[in-house]
Amino acid sequence: MLTFSSCKINLGLFILNKRPDHFHSIETVFYPIHFLQDAIEIISNSSFKDLYYFTGIEMDCKEDENLGVKTINLLREYYDFPFITLYLHKAVPMGAGLGGGSANVASIINLINEKYHLEISKDFRRELASQIGSDCAFFIDPIPSFGEEKGEILSKVDISLSGYYLLIVKPPIHISTALAYKNTIPQSNRKTLKEIILNTKISSWKEVLQNDFETGIFKEYPEIAKIKETLYQSGAIYAQMSGSGSAVFGIFDKKIEIPFPNNYTNYWGII
Known about the structure:
Layout: E1 2-18, E2 24-44, E3 51-56, H1 67-78, E4 84-90, H2 100-115, H3 122-132, E5 145-148, E6 153-156, E7 165-170, H4 177-182, H5 193-199, H6 205-208, H7 213-220, H8 222-233, E8 238-241, E9 248-252, E10 265-270
Parallel strand pairs: 3-4
Antiparallel strand pairs: 1-2, 2-4, 2-5, 5-6, 7-9, 7-10, 8-9
Helix pairs in contact: 1-2, 2-3, 7-8
């Protein structure tokens, strides 16, 4: 059984406070992007163990640290299903803030649930995904959603960017979430992100909708800030670093040519 695992951008990301569990409370809007996807196939095998094959973008981690492997091991703690062979072709860049690994977690849960008729409720699939990563739950049913707490508390948000062009620019920089949080200062005394996103036109987002990770990361990596500046200079209606970076996206009303260095990876698509 084959599926395609999409990614996401964040429309704004407010860091509110540090929690007793040492995570941070956030507000963000997760918006699904379907033109950039990983491919995942799962088949049953008779090897008496799970087998894994990874192609595409190289994943620099040990097998037992791979999120797909962790997901299958977690599911086996709760459910009985045949040994499988997992094929994962990686196209969504890592360390980019696009949630490619998190999307794979959710896609594997959904795929195994469907293939082996496990009848896992959507709520429990989200709970399982959240045990792997805070934003994994969003991808169980990836519709535009407002994320709270660590990002795992989700509610549908009525927003559509349908028809706009999206350019995602990924420089050759990998940013860990731990590093991103290390350089942030939680803020308060401002409108909630949900108020802003629902009551402000996209043409005004530049002034009011920010990603709190940008301040620290732009100081550490000025070339990422330069990407955002270039997108605005090239006519972007709105531009922002996605999640904890390093990818930066621009929303446009038409597709244009923008000269970025050859070692940058660019992804154009219609939202």
